[in-house]
C-alpha cells in the first residue's frame, strides 16, 4: 500500500536546498481553506509583525527569512532519531496578515487566526514577529484555563507600560497575559534574564504573582540540566506554552534582533534547553524577535529554525 | 569687536570630522529650554519615527545616521558661495520624542513641537522619520492658511487608506493634508513619481483637486531646468513647504529606504533640483524616509544631508 | 457575475508586502500537476543553477531572491497603464530542479521542463540561473525553426570553449545555439557589449555568421530609441527570444552578478530598453546571472524583477 | 525637596533609545568650560585616534560608534543592583581633539586634557582610540607615583619598537610607560595574552621587570575567579589603572578590531572579569581598539559599552 | 656564516601586515618549476574549486581569502614556542588550476599535482576548495597503502550519491575513498558530527566498515583531551591524513561556509583539537569549505589560517 | 621561433580568474632585485599607506584589494583593440614598504623607491594609498624639471595646512608640490572639483599660481570631449603626470573612499576621461584613495583597476 507523503518535506537529495518556493521546513503550504487543512496536527505559522517594538524594528521580516533558512532543515533529529514529519502531520499554514499601522486591529486578527486553529485542533508553532505576538496567541489558546509557560528570554517582558501609559508593546505582553488570566503565574518560569535594568518594577511584579525568574548568572552557574529540571517541575503536567525570544541567545550567535543583551547562552546551549522540554504538555510554541535587517546573512534565522525544529520535536516527544 | 561664533559649526580644520558628539552639521545643540533657543532662525530637528510605514521600517533610525553623516558637511556652498551658517542662526534642536507604539500620540507630540517652533519664529528643517511625519508638521505650519508644496518623491502619498480603512500611514499624509485644508492643491507639485501601481486612485484624486504630478519619464524628458521652472510657477510667491522623500532618488544612489522604485534621478540631479528652489518662500522643509538598516554604510544618509544642505541654502537664497 | 481572481496577485493593500510565502510577483504557485496548470498563459519559472559559471558562482540562488524582491511589484505599468495579470493568466510554475553536480543531466532536465511548457502552450518568463540556462530553453522553444533573439548583455557569450575544450559554460551558450540551429543569426542582436577582451574570437564568429553586435559606446552615442529601432528591425516579425543578462546594467546598479563590466546603462535605461520591445513576437524571455551572494541587500534582484515586469508587459504589448 | 537629575541619563521609558543626540550612556554632555564641569566625579571621554596603529586602522571612529551603542545601556547593574549614575556624578566630557597626522602633537593634546581632569578631581573612563592612547593618559594620571595596572588584552603591547626604530605605536605603550616610570611593573598584570608571536622580546622584557603575564591557556584552565584573585593581589591597594583592549575578547564576539587573535573569552566572561575588579583603587579605565570599519553592525561597540558599564560599576564598588 | 632566510616569512616588524603580494603565511611563492622547488619540505597549496558543492557554492574563492588572512600569522607557536618555518622549509606552491565546468577533469588535475608533490617528497597542506577536494589528494597520497584519517567536520561526507545517482559531490568523498581503498576505515575517526539528518545511510555505512563517528554531543560531554586521546589511538602510528572542514566549528565562529550546522565548538576548541594531534604521522592535511561569499569580513578565513598554522605545527611536532 | 611570454598576463581561459596568487592584472611579480627587473618598461606599484588621511583611513589596504580585483582584467582594450601587455613589458613590482607610524620616514621610503624606477627607466603606474602618496612620487619623477599634471578629483588637495600647521596630509600634496617646484602650475588642470567647502583658500592659491580648476558643474555642462580637449591643451607636450583620485567618481559608483562628495561622474564617464588622455606625454600615473574598509564588496576596486587599465593604455597610445 502506497504511503501518503503529502505532509513530508521535500528532500535535499531530490531538490537542492536552494531550489523551490520556500515554505517552513519545505513542508506543504496548507493555508486555511486548503482541502487538507483539517488534517494538519501541527501548524507552522508566520506572524510578520513588529508594531509593539519600542526600540529597533524588523521582526515583521522574520517569517520570510526563517522560511528561507528553514530549507536547510532535514527530516531527522540528530540525537533522538525522531522524524517529526512522520510522527505528526505538519504544514506551513502561511502568515497571519497584520495591519502594520494599527496595533489593536492586528491583535484581533492574530487572535482570530489562532482561535480557528484551536477549534481545528491544530497545535501552533509560530515564527514571529516581536514578542507582543505572544499575547493574542495566548488569548486564543488559554480560552478555557490559564496556561503554564516556559519562557526563554533576556528580558521578562513584564513591564506595566511604556512612554507614559502605552500598554501594548513587546515589553509588556506577559504582564497583560497575567492580568487577563491567560497565564498561571505559579506555572511560569523565565530563563536567561540579564542586562542592565531601568529599575526592578518587572521583577517586583514577578515576585508578587509568583513567577520564577532565573537570571543568566544562575543559569551559567547551575547548568542546563539542573535549571531545566526545575523548569519542568514549575510547568508541571498542565497545558504549557513555550515562548522563545531569540535574544535569549547571546547576540554574537543571534545578532539579528532588536534589543540584544550580551552574555547569553551559546548556540549549543540554545538547542539543549529545548531538548530538556521533552515530556511537557506543550500546546503551542513560538520563536520571536528574529529581525533580519540586523543580520542580513541569515545566521540568526538559521539558528532560529534549528531551535524551531527542536521545539517541534519537544512537542512530539 | 569679537564675533559671536556660537552658531557656527565646528571646522574640520580644527576638530577632525570623525571627532565630537555628532549634531546636525556640527551646529550647537540648542533644544527647547536652552538659553539661546529664542535666537535660532532655522532649526534642524530630528523626528525618529516610522509608525506609518506599511512596508519595511527603519526611518526611526534616520536622524541619528543623518547627524553622523552630517559631520562631513562644510560651511560654504560650492556654486553660489553662500555660507548659510553665517547667513542665519542655525542650530540642532534635538529630536522630537515619539511614541513608537501609538500613532495618534506621536502625531500630537510632533505637532506640538512644531507649533512651538512656529510661535518662536523658527523655520524648521526636519530629518525624518517616514513620510507620515510631514502631516503633523503641516498641521503646525499651516495654522493660518494652506501652504503650497514642492514634493520630491517616487510616490504621491495621496492614497485614501490602507489595510481596509487605516487612514494614517506614510502613503496617505498628503491626502489628509488636503482634506484638512493644510495644503492648497493648486499650489502643490509632485515630482519624480514612478514605479508599478496598484491602481490610479491616488492620481485620480490629484487630478480632481488640481495637484500637478510630474512622472519620472516627463522629468527625464524635459530636464531639470524646465521642470523646476514649472514647479516654481506652481508654488508661486505664497508660503511653501518642501518635502523631499529620499526615494525620489534612484535606489542605487539611495538604497537606505523602505519602498524603493528603480529608475530615478542620480545624485547630481538630486542636488540640482534643490538649487532650482531658490527664490521660493520656504517656511519649512523635510528629508524623510532615510532608513539606516537598509544602508548601514551611510551613503544614503550622506546624500541625504548633502540635500539638506542644499535645501538650507534654498531657504536662504 | 463574480470574477475569477485566482490568477491575480495579492495586493499590498490587503496583505503587507513583507507577508506571505513569496512567489513571483505574488502570483499563485501553479507547478506542473496543479489542477489549473493548463490554464496558464505565461509561466514564471525559476532555474536555480550556475554550473556553467567560469568565474564567481551564485546565480543558483537567484530565483529565491528574485521571488522575495518581486513582492514589491504591483499590478499596473506606470506608463502604459497595462495590467498584465489581467491581460493574461500568469502563474509561478516553481523551479526546475537542477543537478548541481552534473551539467549534462541539468541541461536535459531543463530542456524537458520547457518542452512540456511549449506543449502546454505556456510562454515562459525565466529567472536564472547563469547564462548557460538559456541554451536548454532555446532547445525546447526552437524545435520547429530557429528563433530571432534580442540579447542584452555586456558579453557576447559566443566563445567556442574554455579551459582547453570545455564546451558548455555560461560563456558559450549562443555559440552552441547557433551551431545547433536554434537561433537564426541574421535575426540576432547583442546590445551593450563591453569590457576588456581576451581576444576577438567571439566577435569574429558573430561577424562570420551575421550576428549584429552593438557595443556600449555605440549604445551611449546613438541613444536607446535609435538602437532599439534597429534591434526591432533585426528581430523582425518572426518568433523571437529575449535574453537579459543582468550584467548588461552597470555593476553599480546591479552588483549582484559574477562577471561585472563597468560602464553600462543605468537603471532607468535598463527599463527603457524593455519598453522598446513592444510589438515583437516574443516566445519567451529570461533574466539571468542575478547572483545574491554578491548583493545580499537585494537591490540587484529588485532591479531584476522590475525588468521582468517590463519584459512581461512587452510580451503582452 | 526636588532632586537634581542633571547627571541622570535619559530613560528609555521616556525617550526611545534610538532618539536624541547620542552621548555616552545618555549622560549630559559636559565639556570643559561647561558650568557644571567642576561637579563631575567620573568623566567619560572619547579619544578618536589611531595613529599608533601598525596594522588595520579604524579606532579613530570608535568613540562615535560607542556613544551610539551606549544608548542601549540602562541605569542599574543586573547583579549588584548598583545604580552608578546615582552613586556618582557622571558625564560625557566629549572628545579630545587629536591631530591625525602628527603623533607627538596628539600625545601632548591627550596628556594635557587628562592632566586637567586630574587637577579637577575627575576620574576618567576613556573610549579609545588605539592602545597608544593609554600612554598619554598614564602620563597624566601617574604624575606623583607609578600606578598598578590590570590589563586585558591578547597582546602585551610591550615591544621596544617597530619598523626599524619607531618608538610610539599601539604595540609599545606599556614599554614606554615602564621606562618612563608611569607603571610599577610589580603591580602590573596582563591577562588573556595569545596568538602567534614574532619572538619573545616582549615577554622577556615583562619577565625582566616583573610584569605578570597570564596567557589565555592559563586563563581558560584556572577559571576567572582564580585568575582575578591573583590579579587583585598583584594590583594591591595602591592606585590602579584598568586598560581593556577589546581584542582581549574572542574576535567572533568582537570582530570590530584591527589585530584580532582567535581563541579568546566569550562575552559573558568579558563582563565577569570586570565584576572581579571590585575593591581595587581604580583611578581610571579605558576601552580601546574598537574599530567600527570592521564591524559596521555595531555589535562590537555594544559589547564595548557593556564592558564600560561594568568598569564604571567597578570604579564605584 | 650568513643564514639562508629564503624560506622564512616576511616579518610584520619589517613590512606591515597589509603590504605585499599575499602568499600563504608570507612564505615565498615557489610553484612547480621554481629553482628551489625541490628543497621544499612542506608545501602550502590552494585548490580553488567547488564543483562538488550541492548547496551554496563559494569555496573556489577560499584560497585567495585564506592567503590574504594568513598575512596576520607570525613565526612562533604561542604555547610550544615552535617556529615551524625554521623547523622545516615551507613554501606557497600556488594553486592547482581547476576546470570549474568539468568535475572529472578537475579531479585528474588535482590528483596529478599532488602525485608530483609526493614524488618530490613534499608534504602538502591544502587550502580548499570544497570537501570533494580531499578525494584526489587521497588518491595521490595513498598510492602505496590506505591511510588513517582524523576528520573534523559536522558531516560524515560518507553518503553514497546525490540527486539520483551522482557519485562525486562534497557529500561523498570519503565513501569513494573507502571504496577505492584509499582509507583504512579502522584507522579513521570523524569528530564533531551533528545537525538534522536525511536518514542514517551514512552512519550505517560508517558502522559497517568500522569508521568511528564521534557526534558533537559526545565531544562536548567528554571534552577534548579524552576525545583526542581516542582519536590518536585510532589513527595509530601509520601514515595519517588530517582533513579539517571549517564547518566543524560553530557557524557563529565560522559563518563563511556553505552548509553550516549550529552547536559546534568555539574558536579556542578549534585550535585545541589540532594541538592534540602532535605525535601522529601526518602525511598531509587540508582546511576545506571556507566560502568567502558568506563571510566577506574574512573572520572565517582568519580562523581557518590560524587552524592551518596549528596543523602545520602538528605536522612538525 | 618561440615568443617570450614572461611579461604576458595569465589568461582566464587557462586559469580561472579566481585562482592563483593575485598580482596586478595577473602580470609577473618582478620586485627590485628580480633578474628581469631591468627589462620592465611600465611598473605597477602598490603604496599601501594612509598616514596623511585627515578623515576616514583605509587606503593602506588599497593595493591588496586592487590586486585582487585586477584579476578580472583581460588583455585587450574594448574600443581601440590595443593589447598593452604586448605593446610594452609590464610587471607588478610589488609594494613600497611604508612606516605607518612615521610620515617623514614613509615619504623618504617612497621617494627612494621611485627614484630607483626613474633611474631604471621604468614608468610607474601606482596604486595608492591616500593622496599624499603622489608627493614623494613627484619628488622622484620631477627631479629635472617641473611636470604638468592632469588631476581627476573632487578636491583640489591644495590646502596650506591642517590642524594648526600640519603640512603633510592628503589635503596638501599639490600645494607642497608647487612650492617645491615639482609641478608647473600653468600646465596643471584639476577636474571634477565639488562639494561643500571650508573656504576658498585652496582655490585662491590655484588662481594665484595659474592652476586651472574645472568644477563638476562645468564638467557636466560642457561634456567630456570639450573639457578634455582643454585639459590636453593645458598639459601640452611636456612631461605630464596623471593623478586619479577615486573620489572623482560619484560615491555611489565608488563608495570605497574616505572623503566622498556626491554628484560626480558615473562609471562610463570615469573611463571616458582616460581615453581622452591619449597623446599626452605621460611619465607616470596613479589611482589613489581606494579604501577597502568602506567597500568590502570590492566594486570600487574593480572600477579602480578598470581605470588603471585605461590609464595604462593612455600611456601607450
Automatic annotation (TrEMBL), chains A, B, C, D, E, F:
SUPFAM superfamilies: Arginase/deacetylase. Binds 2 manganese ions per subunit. One of its GO terms (molecular function) is metal ion binding. InterPro entries: Agmatinase-rel, Ureohydrolase, Ureohydrolase_dom_sf, Ureohydrolase_Mn_BS. GO terms for biological process: putrescine biosynthetic process from arginine, via agmatine. Keywords: Hydrolase, Manganese, Metal-binding. Mn(2+) binds at residues 131, 153, 155, 157, 245, 247. The keyword Manganese applies. It comes from the Bacteria. Its cofactor is Mn(2+). Belongs to the arginase family. Agmatinase subfamily. This is Guanidinopropionase.
